[in-house]
Amino acid sequence: MAEPADRGGDPDHGRVVITGIGALTPLGTTWPATWAGLVAGRSGIDTISAFDAADFPTRIAGEVRGFDPAAVLPVKRINRSSRASQLAVAAAREAVADAGLGPSLEEAGAAVVVNCAVAGYPEIQDATETFARDGLRPISPSFVASSLTNMPACEVAIELGVHGPVNASALACASGTHALLEARRTLLAGDADVVVAGGTDAAITPVMFAGLTAMRGLSRRNDAPQEASRPFDADRDGFVFAEGAVICVLERLSAARARGARVYAEVLGGAMTSDGFHIVAPEPNGRWAAEAIRLALDRSRLDPADVQLVCAHGTSTKANDRTETMALRQVFGAAADKLAVTAPKSMTGHLIGAAGTLASALCAMALSGGVVPPTINYGTPDPECDLDYVPNEARELRASYAVTNAFGFGGQNCVLVFGAV
C-alpha cells in the first residue's frame, strides 16, 4: 500500500514524529520506570497473582503491579470499563502530558488509534461464570460494551475529549505496531493534527492460560520466572504471557517544532504483509516477514546498510526466533552482522496488543538517547540464531535508523522504520 501524499508546502509537513510516550508494563506504571527497567536489564516477570494458577503447567506472567484505576478514573467509569481500557487511559494521559499537550484535546484536531488483540477476556470470563452460577440478573448492563475490542480507543477518546477519527484494529501480536502505522497515515492524509496511538491488552485469566497451555507455547520455567523469557537463546522453551498498555503521541514535525515540543524520533514509514500460511505458526522460511521489512525500508527511502538497530519481535519461541533471524538475514545480507538486535520481551514478557508499541517507544528512546536495552537471559547461543542480540547488558549506540518487527498470529507481519531527528 502506497504512503499518503504530502499535502503541505512546508518541507517538514510530511514528516511524522513521536512527541509523547506513556506506559504501564510489568516493569512499572510509567514510561520512565519502564525505560529504566529496560536499560537496567531487569525482568518484570513473576508468579501469577491475578488468579490461583497452582494447578497450571505455567504459573508465571508479566503483570502490571501497583496500578490503581481509582487514581485515573471515577468509580462509574471503572465499573463500566475493562482493565485493558483502564490501562490504556492511564498510558494515554501520561503520553499526552509528556508531549506537553492537554489534558483535553477537544480543540486540537486529534484522533485516536488504540489497538488490542484480546481486550475484554477477563470481563467475558467473569460474566460467563456469573451467568452460569446466578443467571441473568447480576450481569452488568455495561458488560457487552466494556468487552468490545474498540472500547479502549473509545475510552481514551472520552478521556481526552477527542472528536476526530477513533480507530481500533486487531492484528494479534502486531496490533501495537499497526497503530503507529495507521496514526502516521492519518496525519499524512490530513485527517488529524495529533494522533494518540498505541496498544493495550490485559487478559491474564484461567481460560486464557488453559488455551495457551493447550497450544504448548508458554515457558514452564516456574521456578525461575525472571529467567523464563529468553529470546534467541538455545534453551528457550516458550514465551511469557503479559499485560500492559503503551501509548505514543504522534504529530507532524512542523507542528511539533512550531510549539517547541521535544521530539523523540521520526516515524519514517512502514509496511504490512501476510504469510498466508497458518493460524499460529510463522511461514518457516521467513519470506513474507522479510518482504515486510524490505517494503518498509523502501518506503522510508533507506537501504538495509543504513540501519543500525532492530527491535525484534523476539518472542522466545523456537519457531519465531529462528524465522525472524532468517528474515533479517534475507533483507540485510552481510550487513546483518553489524545490526544491534534487541528483544524487550526478555524483560516484560509478551504484552500482546501493546508489544509493538513498546518496541516502537524503545526505538524512539534509543535513537534519541544513544542507549540500547539488552536482550537478557542470553547464555547459550543457538546456531540458527546467529546475530548480535545485545546480550545481557545495555549498550551505547549512536544510531540514525531503527527497525521494529511485529509478527501476529495468522501470519500478520507489520514493520516500522524510525529515524533520529
UniProtKB/TrEMBL annotation:
- What are the recorded GO MF terms, alphabetically? 3-oxoacyl-[acyl-carrier-protein] synthase activity
Listed A to Z, the keywords are: Acyltransferase, Fatty acid biosynthesis, Fatty acid metabolism, Lipid biosynthesis, Lipid metabolism, Transferase
Per its UniProt record, what Gene3D superfamilies does this chain match? 3.40.47.10
Which EC numbers characterise this protein's activity in its record?
A: 2.3.1.179
**SUPFAM superfamilies in alphabetical order:** Thiolase-like
Q: What GO cellular component entries does it have?
A: cytosol
On whether Iron is a keyword of this UniProt record, the answer is no
**Catalytic activity line of the entry:** a fatty acyl-[ACP] + malonyl-[ACP] + H(+) = a 3-oxoacyl-[ACP] + holo-[ACP] + CO2; (9Z)-hexadecenoyl-[ACP] + malonyl-[ACP] + H(+) = 3-oxo-(11Z)-octadecenoyl-[ACP] + holo-[ACP] + CO2
Q: What does UniProt give as the signal peptide span?
A: none
The lineage's top-level taxon is: Bacteria
Q: Any idea where the Ketosynthase family 3 (KS3) domain is?
A: 13-420
Q: In which pathway does it act?
A: Lipid metabolism; fatty acid biosynthesis
GO biological processes: fatty acid elongation
What's the short name of a Pfam family annotated to this entry? Ketoacyl-synt_C
Record: active site: C173
InterPro entries annotated for this entry? 3-oxoacyl-ACP_synth-2, Beta-ketoacyl_synthase, Ketoacyl_synth_C, Ketoacyl_synth_N, PKS_Beta-ketoAc_synthase_dom, Thiolase-like
Family matches, as PANTHER family: 3-OXOACYL-[ACYL-CARRIER-PROTEIN] SYNTHASE, MITOCHONDRIAL (PTHR11712:SF336), POLYKETIDE SYNTHASE-RELATED (PTHR11712)
Give the record's family classification: Belongs to the thiolase-like superfamily. Beta-ketoacyl-ACP synthases family.
Q: What does this protein do?
A: Involved in the type II fatty acid elongation cycle. Catalyzes the elongation of a wide range of acyl-ACP by the addition of two carbons from malonyl-ACP to an acyl acceptor. Can efficiently catalyze the conversion of palmitoleoyl-ACP (cis-hexadec-9-enoyl-ACP) to cis-vaccenoyl-ACP (cis-octadec-11-enoyl-ACP), an essential step in the thermal regulation of fatty acid composition.
Name listed for the protein in its UniProt record: 3-oxoacyl-[acyl-carrier-protein] synthase 2
Query: From which source organism is this entry?
Result: Arthrobacter saudimassiliensis
Tell me the gene name. fabF_1
